[in-house]
Amino acid sequence: MTPEQVAKRYAFDRPGYKLIDFLEVAVPVYRLSLLASFLERKSIAPLYEFALRSLELGLNTEEEIGSFLGIGSETARAALSNLHGLELIDVTLKNGTRDIKITNMGHRCLKETAAIVPRVGPIIMHFDGLTREIFSTKSESLMYYRQVNAAGIREIAAKPPRKPALDELSIEEARKASRTLSEVRNMEKRDLLSIKGIEESTRMFQVAVVLVYRSEDGETDLSMFVDGRLSDKHKMAFLKADGLRKLGLNDPARLVPEALPFEATLTPQQKEELLFETEQAAAVYQQAQFDIEEGEGSVSGDEGSASGEASQNIDIDSIISAAMQSISKHRIRWLEVFEHPSLLEDALDNARKRLLIISPWIRGQVLTHQKLNKIKRLLDNNVDVFIGWGIGKGEPQERGNDMNVVNRLVSLDKEYHNMHFVDLENTHEKVLIKDNDFVVTTSFNWLSFRGDPARTVRYERGVYVGVREMVDDQFAALSARFISSKGVRPSDAQMAALSEKFGGT
Fold first, then answer.
1. Could you tell me the residue range of the domain that residue 199 belongs to?
2. Per-residue pLDDT tens over the stretch 475-485
3. Chain-centroid distance, C-alpha 293
4. CA–CA separation, 12 vs 57, rounded Å?
5. Which residues touch 379 (CB under 8 Å, ≥6 apart)?
6. By the 8 A CB rule, do 348 and 355 touch?
7. What is the mean pLDDT of the chain?
8. How far is 302 from 402, CA to CA, in rounded Å?
9. Do 326 and 286 meet the contact criterion of CB atoms below 8 Å apart?
10. How far apart are CA 82 and CA 51, in angstroms?
């Protein structure tokens, strides 16, 4: 599941707590090349199987077996020699003649049509640097440091900060991981006997999702999801590794919701509506949470699967989307933190006349190539696009922006008359406006909520307003800033033109 899907699924999973933020983190994993001894199951050649079955029928000499199989005594002798080397048969002298018997391993081989061969060789295992355990995963699901850095995902240090030692490797954990991986990849099964040494250790990372909750009385708690599954082991290990401080959760000021300037413009009646509609929306989401849990219980009860697997069989997105559709009729309310990305996607996909985004920073991990193409498609469809950005002094790249994306937006601004890309230079605002449908004023960074490896947790919240007059008022005030930021004070005629153009849908 994506971080947004995890946040949607578990937003109301903690009674008495509110989800205030979520983020991806990179959990350290060591890919180990181990020297180990094991019993390996290998398919045996048909000739060897037939020779064993001949012995099982009571044939006891090379001549009898060769004649029965029609292969001659020389070929039968070679086959029996190889079976003896594999310890599938035992040969003894009895009264001057050779007595050939099938060993226990040979009988097992006939049953499984595979030979069990003792071997010493390399095997690949993965060791979690946070929980200090061997676990089962696919190497292709892991990331190297350069990939984590490029994605702007916050790295979590191993605890202790070193590679695993041989005495840390549990043979039972290794056996379990080996069996699981064999089943997943449909590989030949092998029984691990012992680990003799660590030949190579490569540091990699597994992406996890952290959900941060805050109670009404100010207590903070978190959940960690690895591979889409809740992991209390990772949570406890992370807390022991001073995880709260690393995410900024030891700073009470960061967990106080940011005051939004838009709040000051609300009338007492609108503030009452805001609280009422928010409570109504929360009730809808809580019902969705109940429906998901009921569905997971049903799947788990029918098929005996774990809840993590069950959630994969339930269309969680459809349940949440239905809840969001129901909530859309509420004209003014506080947003849940996980709703922001979906609203941005909706605006990029469905804007008909205008789209306005103000976000202090721009990062390529959010404004991806796909989203840039969506902006271009809006421009081709004669939608007016306003993107305001910029905070602090200095060059844009020094202010934490992705210059490849900034330059692409500058090019669109030059190419399209209906593109308005402006450096507002020192904006702290985070605003999204779609047509006359809605305006969202928030603490959520619309174009940089991913991609900052130094990001700490904040209490993210926003106000959704679907009252047309209020949407238009906000657009009129903000769009005028785009003109003035280019060094031109908007004239009455320009303001009138904007009002006329966007006054109706």
1. 3-37+119-250
2. 998 888 887 66
3. 21
4. 66
5. 385, 412, 416, 418, 419
6. yes
7. 82
8. 49
9. no
10. 11
